[in-house]
Amino acid sequence: MTTNYIKRYSENLNIKNNITNFNEILASVEGISAVSWEFLGHSRREFGEKILKDMYGIINNDNINVMVQLSPEQPDTAMVNYKKTWGIIGDSGVNLDNITEKKSFIDMGRNGLILTGVGSIPITVEGNIQKLINSERELFFSNISPCFDFDSSLNIGRLNQWIRNILINNGIVFYLLGYFDEVDSEVVALGRKDALIEIM
Fold it and tell me: What digits encode the pLDDT tens for the residues 135-175?
């Protein structure tokens, strides 16, 4: 990898840092650090997958685990209940054939249904991650699978549970900062300091 990224590091996310505000993601998780890589002048919409894979590839060259939550809440209709999370994502142009171990979950929200999904994508597949990045806002990746029974976790906090479980089991959670129209791309990795050492 020859790309020059701007790297930032924060050892303790419970204090002010120069990456972002992690309060919504990391409620009550102690001992977590963060590393971010920023690619100036290369938009998230075009280069999000590249920067994610460059960072992830230092740690793992196998599949990358994904967790997604559709936003906003979905209407409680027969079609939504039939298609579920991955069916709706597939309608947006993402090739579901390249995503294995897919699971979809439907929970009741305040104004409709909260749809979340997990899966695994081979790191060698091109384009699928970028399509996910361009279509979904609540999108997270990891180098390990969560160590709990997702099927019996019947509450609306599946996304936070997934993130928390990865972190307490010494895994790394990756996600893109900013919005769809960002002119730069930036990926942040969360984990314990010893887990992040290779990408610092």
Answer: 999 999 999 988 767 666 555 588 888 898 899 999 999 99
In this structure, what is the dihedral angle of CA atoms 67, 23, 114, 156, given to the nearest 10 degrees? 100
pLDDT of the residue at 102: 94
What six digits make up the tokens of 188? 């942040």
Q: pTM higher than 0.90, yes or no?
A: yes
User: Which of 182, 171, 114 lies closest to 145, judged by CA?
Assistant: 171
Torsion of CA 43, 47, 51, 56, to 10 degrees: 140
Please give the Cα distance from 115 to 122 (Å, whole number).
23
User: What is the spatial distance between Cα 37 and Cα 39, in angstroms, rounded to a whole number?
Assistant: 7
Listed range (6-10, 42-46, 100-104, 180-184) with the worst mean pLDDT? 180-184
